[in-house]
Amino acid sequence: MPNWPDTRLVDLLGLRHPIIQAPMAGASNPSLAAAVSNAGGLGSEGLGEATPQRVAEAIEAIRARTNAAFNINLFVNPGAPPLVGHKLRAWRDALMPHYRAAGLGDVPAADRGAPVTPSAEMIEVLLQLRPPVVSFHFGLPEAAIVARLKAAGTIIISTATTVAEAIALEAGGVDGIIAQGWEAGGHRGSHRPTKPGDGVGALALVPQVVDAVRVPVIAAGGICDGRGIAAAMALGAAGVQLGTAFLRCPEASTEPAHRALLETATEIDTMVTDAISGRAARAVRSAFTEAMTGRDVAKPAFPALYDFTWPLVETGEASFHLYGQAAPLARTLPAAELVETLAQEALERMGALSGRRG
Ligand SMILES: Cc1cc2nc3c(=O)[nH]c(=O)nc-3n(C[C@H](O)[C@H](O)[C@H](O)COP(=O)(O)O)c2cc1C
């Protein structure tokens, strides 16, 4: 067994390495998750707001490929009424030039509003199938649901982007907290929709979260190699969650256009925008996100906004390729080899640093 300086996360989850492959709705899948879990990390499947049936199928598909622990990730959404009246008209007017430029017809006439998730039916599926780990993004469901899942033997983790969110998660009963820095690819795990313009970097956030809570802290954001893992552990993290680093694995469902961007990525390609989904997410810049991010016009809520923006993504007027600021450090390796490489690099780096100290 490798000699990690902090074994709280590996002990909690029964891992060889304190490395979590981030759930990435659309890019993760059961094969990727199982490959990571079989290699001694924690594989995750990002199911966002998928149907309970799809979640059941994913759990079954991962179990068919591994006996090790794995993580099922779901979005928490408080729900929102549809945008109507003059607000809807103003939003449709703001989109019109982009629809024209893309050669699209009319902007959709109505907003369907956002559903509350996870649904009661989803919780029943989780209670019945008992995935070893469930992680939530955008906060936590109510305490009674968390308590029922934990009583069924499932370990619960969730993301914090601030110290206050970390304290709220601990009070809500989580077993571990992902501290997600501003560098991170994908949606900010903020518990309420936030403006896209500001956030705390991992170097500042992780030690402050470590000081504020007792449960193990998992650092996320900008970690793509062993140096990043060693740094996270130096900050007091018990483990790491990496998304961008796994996007180039052959097992990932990363689309070809997304892969092509990753091969030539730089640290300044991306921006945090809420203009595509309705919640802040780090994605590659496009003319649309540059023009619409931070604009003072009310939008339909996450995820109903996709109904309006996805036609623009499909025509290339907008894009929504999610990745983080450390993308140039990511490598094209099979998932198992990547987990092993990351672990070896981190252990060597930590060994070298302690050697120098001594
Ligand atoms: C393509 C992509 C999709 C993501 N989707 C999800 C998701 O569905 N659920 C979730 O909790 N986090 C999601 N994330 C965020 C990750 O959990 C994690 O915070 C982030 O990847 C860490 O930063 P890094 O990309 O620099 O490693 C996603 C990240 C990426 C890059």
UniProtKB/TrEMBL annotation:
- Superkingdom classification of source: Bacteria
Q: Which UniProt keywords apply?
A: Detoxification, Flavoprotein, FMN, Monooxygenase, Nucleotide-binding, Oxidoreductase
What SUPFAM superfamilies does the record point to? Inosine monophosphate dehydrogenase (IMPDH)
* Cofactor(s) annotated in UniProt: FMN
Gene3D superfamilies reported for this sequence? Aldolase class I
Its Gene Ontology molecular function terms?
nitronate monooxygenase activity; nucleotide binding
**Which biological process, per GO, is one annotated for this protein?**
response to toxic substance
Q: Provide the reaction this enzyme catalyses.
A: 3 propionate 3-nitronate + 3 O2 + H2O = 3 3-oxopropanoate + 2 nitrate + nitrite + H2O2 + 3 H(+)
InterPro entries according to UniProt:
Aldolase_TIM (IPR013785), NMO (IPR004136)
Concerning Pfam families, the annotation shows: NMO
Question: Signal sequence span per UniProt?
Answer: none
Q: Say which family it is in.
A: Belongs to the nitronate monooxygenase family. NMO class I subfamily.
- Protein name per the record: Nitronate monooxygenase
The organism named in the record is Tabrizicola oligotrophica
